[in-house]
Amino acid sequence: MAERTSHLLSKPCFQQLINVLRSGGYRVIGPMVRDGAVVWETVQQTGDLPIGWRDIQEPGQYRLERTGGDRIFGVVHGPQSLKPFSFAPREPLLTIERTRNGFATSPTIPAPEKVAVLGARPCDVAGLAMQDRIFLRDAYADPYYQARRAGLFLVAVNCTRALSTCFCASMGTGPRATSGVDLALTELDEGVIVEAGSSAGEDILAKLECVPSTKEAIGEAHARITACAKSQMRALDTALLPQALYEAHEHARWDDIAARCLACGNCTMVCPTCFCHAVEESPDLDRQRSEHARVWDSCFTQEHGYIHGKNVRPAIKDRYRMWLSHKLASWIDQFGSSGCVGCGRCITWCPVGIDLTVELPALLKLDARDTNRQTER
Amino acid sequence: MESHAQPATPGSGSAFHSQKPINPYEIHMAAIVEKRQETAGIETYRLKLVDETVRQAYRFSAGQFNMVYAFGVGEVAISIVSDPDEPEFLDHTIRAVGRVTKALARLHVGDRLGIRGPFGQGWPLEASQGKNVVIVTGGLGCAPVVGAIEYIFRRRKQYGSVKILHGVKTPHDLLYRERFDAWRRHPDTEVLLTSDKPDKTWHYHVGVVTELFEQVAVDPARTVVLICGPEIMMRLGVPILMQRGIPAAAIYVSLERHMECGIGLCGHCQLGPYFLCKDGPVMSYDGVAQWMGRTGV
Asked: Is A21 at the interface with chain B, CB within 8 A?
């Protein structure tokens, strides 16, 4: 993307981008302030975006505050990543109707809809690429996911401010969106630098009244993104994964985490890559028709590990270990890279502020109690 | 592990529009053509897929499973018991213990249910030709292996000796009694049964299935073992077999986990890096040994 021509859209002209997308047939979705957080909503005008707001995120804490400035994308992110746009929280799979001779099924693959997401963060773009790998792989490309994904047009915003919970730089997923986007924006004081990442993006860009970016503006954008990476206070060292975490299966730290973890499943609900789902059946009251749907599930629920007669992961410790070991270790074996993109949402939205960037190093350290146990053997 | 195609760039379109994949969630209607009570609470359903095209295309291997659907209630993963050489009919032996299986138990001959499958990896039967086969099962765990045994006996000369070791809690829990009797009559075949809690009618071994190992001679270099039953049975049994010189790579286990999708997508059936619905349910012990010994996985 660095090779491409870079264009500058002045802030007063930003509405053009929304207009061009809308006239291109896209429903434009962007961050909007709602109930003390930003959520994805349909956007009509620039003023709908959280101009002059920023988010403060800490373990177990999310706050919005007014800065009074004119920054359009001052808020880094809200609880939801791009995941719900392609992997719907509730996706009806089939409607099944009773017939004289049994039943008849009709698939409920969603109708294609052109949706432009304005303000996707690089970590979330990486999360979506991981979801693509999961849902569109091999023989079982998921037609429901595929239908939703096909209509997505991504307008990413490169990050120029890191939250205290951000660690994308260490995961190699940000703060610049390097692939998988249609347009990438970088917000400066004088305007927004716009770069195209796909031919569909080029088409939109061509319709904007932009001026070519100056060398200074490009340099400024680069400097801000680099500074954002450097300012990140958290990091995850994944060099020893997956093996080191597999070997930590009996580590005493899991008990320590379990004493804090509420098994609420928030971390899995806000994670851009978590893909577990349950299949549920909702028959009409007269039992003539039934809906077969998949809904987001979490490995923290009791039912997740249930087989007849027992639960294979009965304790909270087992479930947290399942989640973290999957995310950071077995995910690598399954899909070729980590299931973590460094967005930090699981840290922020954990009611007790469990922080995987603290827990992983603790788990990889040989525990004192563990050493005792080994010598006893 | 398998390799994955690079995700296409959004906007470029091709990868998202060109593929016309089959819908892995589609449920096919099957008629119950026979229902047979095996023991208290356990029945074998003989099913026939209703749509002829679907039926013709349906092929499975022994050890695979189907998602069986009860209208308005849901799906449950059940192994296929029948002979893979007769794909016209599908047999499922089902214990009525859960929401779906209890709904299935209320259906009669002629009623319709749903089938989605077959899924998973079955037993390594082609790769085991020329070898002696030891089959160790416990309780309802014999169901996923029945198709494998029938497959072997159809090609009796292509395998060495066959030893079938099966354990049940009480004599009433013995499924497929006539099948065991029939298998016994094949040449170079031993069938050994045991019960933990026998009654006066029981004239086989008394005790757990692992005790039967002492009664059979094995040639470790040319033996393959197929095991299916409670996980505890496999955990205790496999080390004994390995002590007798059978390598872990020649021991195959069929594992049970919660399965909701059958296509490695819903996440429930994970065991370490494996999705047991897709990478299993039959796994080489070599691959899963380090996970099976662990608690809470």
From this structure: no
